Structure formats: C-alpha cells, structure tokens
C-alpha cells in the first residue's frame, strides 16, 4: 500500500476569470470550484482512481468542511482531530492559461496534535508499504519533522518519498547530509526546489532544459543520488522530467498541448511514478508514467487529478543520459 501524509491539507478553491488578471482591477468569475486537497491527498486520489491501495493521512477536525468534502470524494483516508480549521488555498486561473496561487499558512498544530499525527502515520504503515510525505508543514511543526519521520519509518523497514520545499526541504537535506537521518528513497523536486537543494538557480535550470540543455539538471540530480537519495525525479514543466537512480539517468520529454492549470501537476507526476513503481515497472517506464500523469494534469481545469483513461504513457519519449 502507498500511504500519503499531508501535514498541511487545504480546501482548494479554484476560480477561473473571464479575462486576464490585472492587479487593482475588477474581475468576473466564470467558474468556481472547491475540493479537499493538499499534495498527499492529490497523490492518493490519483492512485485510488487507478485502482491501487492507498491511504491519505492528515490532520482535520470532524466538523471541518474539509472533512465533509473528503468523505464525499470516496478516498480512503485517516484524519487526526485538531482544533484549528483547515486552511484555504486560492487558485486564480486567467486567460491565456495563467495560474496565480494565494495560499494560507494553515493553523498551528499543538505539540500533542503533532505527536498524534506522527503516531497515526506510523500506526497505518506496515513493512513493505511506501510512505509519501507531501507538501508544506503546518505551523507548529519543527522544520526537521519530515527528517524525524523518515528515520523512524526506515527503522520500521518502510521506504519513504518526500515532496516539499523551502525550510522543511532545507532541514531534511541538512539532516541526511549530517547523518542525522536516512536520505529519502524518492525525492520529487521541481527546478526551483532542485535549486534550493543544490544552490543553483532553478529558473536557469528549467530554462536550459527547455532549450534542450540537460547537463545542469542531470548533474544536480546525480549529485543528490550520490548523497544517498534512492531516486531523484526532477519535474521540469514543459521540458518533461529527469530521473536519476542507481540504474542510470534518463530524460522524458513532455507532449505539448493546451495548458488549463498547472496546479496538481507535480503531485500527479509523483503519483504516476509511484503507480509504475508499485506495479513493478523499470525506472524508464516509471519516468514515462510520471511525465504522462503530469502532462495530463495540466490539460485539466483547476486541481483536477487525471484518471487512467486520461493519461497516455509515451515510453518512446524516454532516452538515457
């Protein structure tokens, strides 16, 4: 089973405007939708739609509107009761396919709530499961909270993937580099997060990849793998993705098409990789599945997570580096 932890879930509200967004202007909404979200929830939703066993673990009160929406989504989940409300993240989509995100920080967890969340995660896992730690940390959680979970899960023979950024990502890297925790089995940074890990400029890395120059991202991904990360999956937007593992390094191009919303694309790519992993596919196939899921996600409105019938896996687009 693949278990996801969303430490800072969100009510994802997506509004689509009738005209381009202009700061200081008055705008009209053409579409408005709200769903239970968060990076781990999105990963679990993709896996569940593909028929794989998954469980989303997250903090949310029983009477929170988020909990009701999640229950209506028919997604296997386990909530840890907390006193504060789940945050709301606002995504504004305006012509021509421009996405603007406005995210709340989330309500602070108490030390007792944080401990209960960690206990729930460990109680849900068994040897042979895979745990994906996804997204930002709720206020009140220390920056090294993910590092602590990885160490505990590895001691229980449970492999772990991580998709996060900023302070939690920096704290995790510092911990594994100092041998205070094991490195994750899977890391799924975008170009900006890769820059945070390596000191490089993420925008430059992605721009180079879009021009076909993959040496900067390849070197950075291989360096992280050499530091102990089992698999480094770097998502590069329109330039596809690069994967570095013990078996080799590959690039998979993305098929161009209409972009309706980039929200959830990284989560979908992570789910695609995990879906292929749990089905025993080789690394190049895992990369192709990751890119296919990410590509399908950007062609869908709002935070819609693609179903298997909306995904076209192109293994012919993968090449070894």
Automatic annotation (TrEMBL):
InterPro entries: Carboh/pur_kinase_PfkB_CS (IPR002173), PfkB_dom (IPR011611), Ribo/fructo_kinase (IPR002139), Ribokinase-like (IPR029056), Tagatose/fructose_Pkinase (IPR017583)
Carbohydrate kinase PfkB domain: residues covered: 23-309
Record keyword Lipid metabolism present: no
Keywords attached to this entry: ATP-binding, Kinase, Nucleotide-binding, Transferase
Short name of one Pfam family: PfkB
Family: Belongs to the carbohydrate kinase PfkB family.
PANTHER family: 1-PHOSPHOFRUCTOKINASE, 1-PHOSPHOFRUCTOKINASE-RELATED
NCBIfam families: 1-PFK (TIGR03168)
Protein name: 1-phosphofructokinase family hexose kinase
Lineage, opening ranks: Bacteria, Bacillati, Actinomycetota, Actinomycetes, Micrococcales
């Amino acid at each position: 089973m693949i278990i996801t932890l969303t430490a800072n879930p969100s009510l994802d509200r997506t509004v689509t405007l009738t005209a381009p967004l202009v700061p200081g202007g008055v705008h009209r909404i053409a579409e408005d939708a709200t769903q239970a979200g968060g990076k781990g929830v999105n990963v679990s939703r993709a896996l569940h739609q593909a028929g794989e066993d998954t469980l989303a673990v997250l903090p949310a009160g029983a009477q929170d509107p988020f909990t009701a929406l999640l229950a209506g989504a028919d997604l296997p989940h386990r909530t840890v009761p907390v006193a504060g409300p789940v945050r709301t993240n606002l995504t504004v989509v305006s012509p021509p396919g421009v996405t603007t995100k406005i995210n709340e920080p989330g309500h602070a967890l108490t030390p007792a709530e944080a401990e209960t969340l960690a206990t729930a995660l460990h109680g849900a896992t068994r040897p042979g499961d895979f745990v994906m730690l996804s997204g930002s940390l709720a206020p009140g959680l220390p920056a090294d909270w993910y590092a602590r979970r990885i160490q505990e899960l590895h001691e229980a023979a449970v492999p772990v993937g991580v998709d996060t950024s900023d302070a939690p990502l920096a704290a995790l890297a510092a911990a594994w580099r100092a041998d205070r925790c094991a490195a994750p089995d899977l890391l799924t940074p975008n170009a900006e997060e890769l820059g945070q890990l390596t000191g490089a400029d993420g925008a430059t890395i992605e721009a180079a990849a879009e021009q076909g120059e993959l040496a900067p991202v390849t070197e950075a991904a291989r360096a992280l793998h050499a530091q102990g990360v089992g698999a480094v999956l770097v998502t590069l937007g329109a330039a596809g993705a690069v994967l570095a593992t013990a078996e080799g390094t590959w690039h998979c191009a993305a098929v161009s098409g209409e972009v309706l919303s980039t929200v959830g694309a990284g989560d979908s790519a992570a789910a695609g990789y995990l879906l292929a992993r749990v089905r025993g596919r080789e690394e190049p196939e895992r990369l192709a599945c990751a890119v296919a899921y990410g590509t399908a996600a950007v062609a869908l409105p709002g935070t819609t997570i693609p179903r298997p019938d909306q995904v076209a896996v192109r293994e012919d687009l993968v090449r070894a580096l």
